[in-house]
Amino acid sequence: MLGHSEEPIRLRVPSGSISAVRSKIRFVSARSSAIVWEWTPFILVSSYFVFSTCIYMVCSEKMIEVFWYVYMLTNTYVSMVTVLEAVLSIAATRESRNRVNKVAGNDFKSGSGPWPTPDDQLPILDLIIVAYLPNERDIIMDRVEYLCTKIVYPVDRIRVNCLYNTPVDIEPLESELAGLMDTYEQLRVIKVPNSKSKADNLNYFFTLDTGADIIAIFDADHYPHPHNPRWAAEGFMADSEVGIVQGRCIIYNSRDSWLTRLIAIEFDKIYAVSHPGRAIMMDFGLFCGSNGYWRAELLKSHKMHGEMLTEDIDSALRAVQKNVKAIHEINAVSYELAPSEFQGFWKQRLRWAQGWAQASLVHMPMVWGQPEEGTRSFTKRFGIFSLLAVRETSYYLITQYTCLVLSFIILDFPKTPLALARMIFFPYPLSVWFFVISVACLMGTLVITWRVRSEFISAGMMVIFSIFYPFYLVVMGMIGLYGHARQVVAYSNWNPTART
């Protein structure tokens, strides 16, 4: 009717439907963001390889020669430093063997007989095993019982502490763990409240007044040698200035796969050769995260920084920054598991690579800055520079050389294996000298590693390692680049290493 306005027609949508649509949009958005976040590092690294290879394909012959000599010189430097560390480690190894022979000659009798320190004067020790229970549910009971029954250390001077966290209750395992305290008087099982990491577990323990003189940290997959704590304790007793004693880690599942064979030899090379040699050459040792002993008051004030991706690397470098004296005790042996499949190895090493990249950025000022107390020698500064800057840069040198070789192959594909070897190793007049020096350094390092190999390493494994080591370095270079790319995008989604 004229003069009457018509009401607009409104479409009524149930509020529940709107909420459902919004929820789906948020889910799709979050999922898409997660996929981009996950795949961006892969795209960055892939682009790096493609771009670098293409650049070499269009470079002049003179520029290619310059690049090649730069890569060879840096490789020669790293090889010579590595073999020098190995040579210097011989003295530490010989001393360790002499101490073992001296103690073994007394048949490891109890009391003060074979050991420098009488039992009743040994430091009180808190031995910590840290576990994320859902991941280590199958091994935790075995490890705790091993520590309580096999470790040779006065029971009244050691406490075995099982610190664990779990997002969900795991029964009857948790009750069984707690029940072990009735069987072993030296055992303490602690479920850490509101913990989401190894750092949270440890920092909670550091708030407790336990009266310990020394604190030892072990991951849940470790089997410390029965005399491991005694060797570490003697290290502290021999030198009051020692703040950290780092033991030797050995891979005991070396025969599980080709990968564990490589890792086992790598660990022998790192813990029995490189670490002791670097401590002598560069004037500082390193805490390595597990099988490490600290003076209790030092560690409690030091704490673990949970915001760091690898809190153990960060804690080690902060100790170096404070001029804490750390020694490597080769006789303090602990056996651990290596990932037997490439997927587990890849995830583990990616976390380490990104953790080292993050820690290197944070602690690089040690190279030019002064410590809080005392002074920092030029030798130590150079060692820190080599450990942080040179190591992180080496990933690019290795992969750039790989891209350079790829460009050679693409432009002039070799028709025989001999032609390929000549293309890779002998393209320029000085090639032979670089090749000879690098091979000599590698063989020297491996010979010294063979002298201190663990009981799980055979001659055949060493031969295989020697053949595949260059390719292993390329893989490690790729992992290092991937870790850098993840650090760029602030990637922090980690899966724990599987334990079985």
Automatic annotation (TrEMBL):
Bilayer topology: Multi-pass membrane protein
For whether the record's keyword set contains Amino-acid biosynthesis, the answer is no
Tell me any Pfam family this protein matches: Glyco_trans_2_3
Citing just one GO molecular function, the answer is:
glycosyltransferase activity
One GO biological process from the UniProt record?
A: proteolysis
UniProtKB keywords: Glycosyltransferase, Membrane, Transferase, Transmembrane, Transmembrane helix
UniProt-listed Gene3D superfamilies: Spore Coat Polysaccharide Biosynthesis Protein SpsA, Chain A
Record's PROSITE patterns? Answer: ASP_PROTEASE
Subcellular location per UniProt equals:
Membrane
- Record-level GO cellular component terms: membrane
Database matches in InterPro entries:
Aspartic_peptidase_AS, Glyco_trans_2-like, Glycosyltr_2/OpgH_subfam, Nucleotide-diphossugar_trans
Q: TM segments? A: 39-59, 66-92, 395-413, 425-450, 456-482
All copies of the Glycosyltransferase 2-like domain together span: 214-436
Protein name per its UniProtKB record: Glycosyltransferase family 2 protein
Per the UniProt record, the lineage of the source organism begins with: Eukaryota, Fungi, Dikarya, Ascomycota, Pezizomycotina
